[in-house]
Amino acid sequence: MSRPQAVTRRSAKSEYIETDTGNKISRRARIEGKQNIMLAGKSVVMAGAILRGDLHRKIDRPAEGEKGGPITAINIGRASVISTDCTIRPPMRMSRGLMTFYPMRIGDNVFIGSGTHVSALSISSHVHIGANCVLSAFCIIKESCKILPDTVVPPHMVIPPGSVVGGRPARVVGEVGEGWGQGGGGEGEEYVEGGDLRALVRSIK
């Protein structure tokens, strides 16, 4: 897994800047602290999305002769989609009167619907999140979950694998069922909720 690479191709007709690892970043997205954001490849950040890589845990100054390592505030896996007007903000808590931010990890094949605000600690792979949701600080979404539109997940809630979640506040309202999310990655296929999002990524120009 590597950090976002330099842009290799641009098109005046395209809304997106594409990196050499296949990530597509809208020219109208707001990316803060991009050096602290890791994209694994073939992921999409749409127009109006805000990624706050500038919000990260402050590291003590390295000892003399040592080099400080890179800081990762937001880590996004492969073939994940951040839809329009989402906000991705690492979780924060107060510690000794100071704001301390914690790194956020988003897995592979995660779809985040438009207008959703995410401050989760982690979202595992093959998760589908509807529009206008709130994933509050330090919540954890396990793999193969479906979050219904307008859901508010409270702080520190842990959602078990394979759950369907809805409500304000969120509660588990069902299970996704056997076979949910299978398929969707092949040429010409339509994307499947919870499935392989590569076909969706390819379709975004």
UniProtKB/TrEMBL annotation:
It is found in: Cytoplasm, Cytoskeleton. SUPFAM superfamilies: Trimeric LpxA-like enzymes (SSF51161). It holds the Pfam family DCTN5. Keywords: Cytoplasm, Cytoskeleton. GO terms for cellular component: dynactin complex. The keyword Cytoplasm applies. Belongs to the dynactin subunits 5/6 family. Dynactin subunit 5 subfamily. This is Dynactin subunit 5. It comes from Friedmanniomyces endolithicus.
